Amino acid sequence: MSWVDEYVRNVFNVRVSDVYVVASGLTTSGPAHMGTVMELLIPYSISRTIRRYGRKSYFIFIADTLDSLDSIPAQLNRFKELRDYLGRPLSMVVDPYGCHENYAHHFLDEVLTLMKKFSIECDEVLTADKLYSEGWYDDYARLFFSRLDEVRNILETTSFRKLPPNWMGVVKPICGRCGRNDTTTVKSFNNDLIEYECSACGFNGATAIGDHKWKLLWRLDWPSRQDFLGVDIEGGGVDHFTKGGSWDTAKEIHKRLFSKEPPIPFKFGFVLIEGRKMSKSKGLGSLSEILKYIHPSVIKYFLLKHDLEENRNLRLDPKFLLTLYEEYRLVGEGKYQDVKQLRAWELSGSMRWSISFSELLVYYQIYRDWDVITKLVKDEFVVNELRTYVENWVSDGLVPEDYEVQLKPSKPPSDMRKVILIFKDSIDESMSDVDIHNKVYEVARSNSVEPSELFKSIYMMLFSRPRGPRLGKFIKVLGVGRFKALVDEILKDNT
Q: Class assignment of domain 1-127+269-347?
């Protein structure tokens, strides 16, 4: 059974709801990466599976737009002005590109665009800055201040850290002078008034809860919004669920302060790029680069086919990616019967491609004309879906040597000329690529030549290298007639 079916069935066993509210949130702190996709894809897949079983679900995405800008992503280092905004809430940071009202909303728009590209549909999109300004968190802040000793106890026991004796920091006020909310400390709370000091600029100030110039600590923010949104299901990366992590705190807040059961959690493993954990600040795992070469459905399939808590290691080696493309296609053709692969394929878009990505690479290198290629492969859908990725592979030099078909004719050894001509004369248009490929073995053996030597001689004649694309497939793509004419042209002056 796939992890998603197992998880959803467990949800049904432990909680009955007319509508299962599924939530996901992330900080819009920079360009999206593969982890961003996981934060959206996993809960969306759960929501879809709930509906598949005939129940109702409601998928909410929350953008944490009030988190501080704690570092500048590698892709944005050229925007020197961002240094002046470090420590400020993301919704109060300038958009370096100048096209959105602020930094947070620029990268929120990028996430929404990403959702469309990956066919992920949310029932509702919310932003933290709006939720706070509308007062959704006000009563939770009051509750935490009124039960400060209990909050302190929960935080200390679940995070394994001792708080200062005078600690009152259930919120992080936004400094009235420098605008930071990562360096402020609450000094007192009376009659809804929060007094604080800022260690960055030395300012001492005050703000009322109703001013909404503050943000709850993350460990208090998360359970609060789960409560007022009525969330039934929410999870995140395994780092949130380690012992002493934020989920341990959230659980206790729900039980001890809200007197309610927490949402049903799930946790997923990391996405690694070439064995390394992704990082916005270091620029690892940029989706803009990955999406140049990998179709979104193939990415979704890759992320979903693993067990939920398993780490996923995406290798950018072209041969690995070609294998992944082909695995996706073959699952769609019913060649693989593994339940996990089948469910991953269904949840990733259920696309059926009649021709492999590697074959399209060969076709494109030969013809460079998609109208001609479409007529040859007789599948307009697959051409339209994959053509952009094929072009990028070819233009950016990702095509492995075994699939390069740039013709570089050279004369074969004189002792192989006769055998090559016999092979040429023994094939015709009616033969399949497998028949043509097998004919090499037949001709070689009947002429006392090692098949490997005949293959090598043909590749050297066509490409000036000892290896190349699968020969039968290449000749079929090129056209038997064109192949014969090419051989005749290369050998015509050979003596």
A: alpha beta
Given a contact cutoff of 8 angstroms between Cβ atoms, the answer to whether 153 and 130 are in contact is no
Residue 278 pLDDT: 63
Contact indicator for 295, 348 with CB cutoff of 8 Å: no
Domain-wise residue ranges, the chain: 1-127+269-347, 138-216, 353-398, 405-495
**Which pTM was predicted?**
0.89
Report the distance separating Cα 340 and Cα 5, nearest Å: 10
CA distance 383 to 381: 5
Side-chain-side CA neighbours of 267 within 13 Å: the count stands at: 13
- pLDDT band of residue 324 (cuts 50, 70, 90) is very high
**SS3 assignment for 73-117:** CHHHCCCHHHHHHCCCEHHHCCCCCCCCCCHHHHHHHHHHHHHHH
Please provide the DSSP assignment of 436-483 as one string: HHHHHHHHHHHTT--HHHHHHHHHHHHHSSS--S-HHHHHHHH-HHHH
Q: Which CATH class is domain 405-495?
A: mainly alpha
